[in-house]
Fold these 2 entries.
Entry 1:
Amino acid sequence: MNDIIEARTQRTKWFLESRFGMFIHWGLYSIPARGEWVRSTEQIPEEDYLPFFKEFDPVNYDPKAWAKAAKEAGMKYAVLTSKHHDGFCLFDSKLTDFKSTNTKCGRDLVREFLDAFRAEGIKVGLYYSLLDWHHPDYPHYGDTNHPMRNHPECSNEGRDFSRYVEYLHGQVRELLTNYGKLDIMWFDFSYGEMSGEKWEATKLAKMARELQPWIVLDNRLEVGGESYGSITSDAPSIYAGDFASPEQMIPPAGMTDIHGNSIPWESCITLNDHWGYCAADHHYKPAKLVIRSLVECVSKNGNLLLNVGPNAKGEIPEESLEILKEVGHWMKGNSESVYGCGISDFPKPEWGRYTQKGNKVYAHVMEECINAVAVDIAPERIEKARLLADGSEIRIDKPWNAKAFPTTTFFTFGGRSFPLPDAADTVVELTLKD
Ligand code: GLC
């Protein structure tokens, strides 16, 4: 392992053990409530967006309640949008007036978030948008995403991109200097020409490492959510990041480098179909799917960063809280099969998945079977089997009709295997003999 990769391995140790985090997309866009891209998708001019800035007043913002919800769901870290593409800052930046402290609420929302989550023992990260649709020096006309992209009158003459880059570096410096230890910095995102050195990414990554040597960086100074960049190579660029960030999907076979070795990765996934609050979007994923997706990530050596989009009052939607509660209920009994676990030595079974930590193999049974569940591990290799949720013995028996399969282990739940004790995912802890 070379030095760059060794350092990455050290930095991401806690991150990969944590496996489950909360993403929080919150900003002015919670008022129009049509998602965080609303300014771009509807090509809203600045003057029609500014009223939301004047109006913003999340009276029910209670980051302690958010932190409790994350903790109860079993999440070990959280990442909040300190600035999204619309340029609005949730922190008290000296470099702009377009910030939460200048709205009616007058609060540094980032600082309160950090205090509350740290108090619950949750690691903290900040998302920072590289795009900025508010800054006058960011390209307008002809840019791929800018709300004014189709307006020749918003020509880029006189816009000085280097001034924007200075602003971007200045704000990142503020975040990394004024807010204590940050565990993650989540930059978003590169596209086309707007990538890498266009952001002066070498300088930026060096500054981040200088100010916060242990900070974990994502890979989007180099790429967008659809590709991975040099993180998969033997010689990752200095801004290649510490983990890959597949978006709204779980990579079919996890993420590996060019030699097939696992690299750190995290799938970020929404609970409904939007990151920012969308009032009309009730297409929420059931807890069962969330649990199974988390297990899928872990079984492929990855993390799940699950998003919530608080509303204009500062509340996480009730539907999201309900799902988090259910996930938390499952995690209460089964989190040992998640934290610190990863890909198993045994191939994926037909009825579900395995996760593994040392000599503990966790059989995640998700499909009902006729009579016994068949495990492709020889019975002599298994010391004992326990239902993870309550620690009760799972007897390993050789049913009369399975004698022809001596190298397969069979178990049932008290003589049967349907219905499963937990319809979302019944976890059996198999302790292997040394
Ligand atoms: C995207 C979107 C964005 C969201 C992010 C999360 O790149 O632009 O709105 O914040 O993905 O991964």
Note: Residues 25, 36-37, 188-189, 225, 247, 268, 275 surround alpha-D-glucopyranose (CB under 6 Å).
Entry 2:
Amino acid sequence: MAVHVERDGAVAIVTMSRPEAMNAFNTEQLQALLDRVRELSSDSTVRAVVLTGEGKRAFAAGADISEMSSKGPAEARRFGELGHAIGRGIGSAPQPWIAAVNGYALGGGCEMALACDIRVASENAQLGQPEVTLGIPAGWGGTQRLPRLVGPGIAAEMLLTGRRLKADEALRIGLVNAVYPSDELLPNATEMAQTIANNSPAAVTATKQAMRLAFDVPLADGLTFEAQIFALAFDTQDQKEGMTAFAEKRSAKFSGE
Ligand code: COA
């Protein structure tokens, strides 16, 4: 049971590993993921993160049902808050997170993918929110993030029926951006992360923050924020380097300053 972090240059690859339970989250595994989210958020050498699951069968099969089954409301609340803390941590991280969904992403597994900025999947992936079949509502962000991502009608169907979607349907509704054969998933997700990592970290972080605001504030307030980050970008080395490099017909080397 662990959450491993590997580095590939400026990209961090985070692997949820609890193979005996399809990478399902018990409290220890949740805390480990939260710790990694916090560590990576404060590491300025990390410019993009890929989140995936150990093996080829599961990204994460949700919250640990055996641990949950005996919880009372107070314990369930703490368990729910831990899941929310991870979602909030990924959302407020300066780096974009890409979920590489390498198999089942059910319940809390789907919600961790939803908390990421971008999702890609393997051909054998299946995504769903089966909580209602267990007698509970989704509790780690699914009721809020799924409708924002795929629209209220499809989200309602997923959250109310518990139906699992195969990768091609997830692609069609925009739940994932791309589908790859299993062996090509991680290389493609890492390549996308490297492309992000090569861009200006200052501009990438500002863009992530502005996009996240789009679902929280009225349009006028979001546009005010965008106007501010756009203006402030012209006080960064990254802006000077990016535009100088364009004029000099070379690749920019961004410092994040
Ligand atoms: N919590 C705890 N253990 C889980 C788990 C979960 N969410 N999901 C899978 N596991 C365990 C199984 O109990 C099994 O353990 P065992 O070998 O000790 O019996 C092991 O992982 C393998 O799962 P299994 O069900 O045998 O594999 P499968 O290929 O037949 O089915 C799933 C895979 C993912 C479809 C099925 O395990 C499943 O539906 N899991 C629950 C998903 C869910 O409802 N998640 C939301 C929770 S809120």
Note: The longest helix spans residues 73-92.
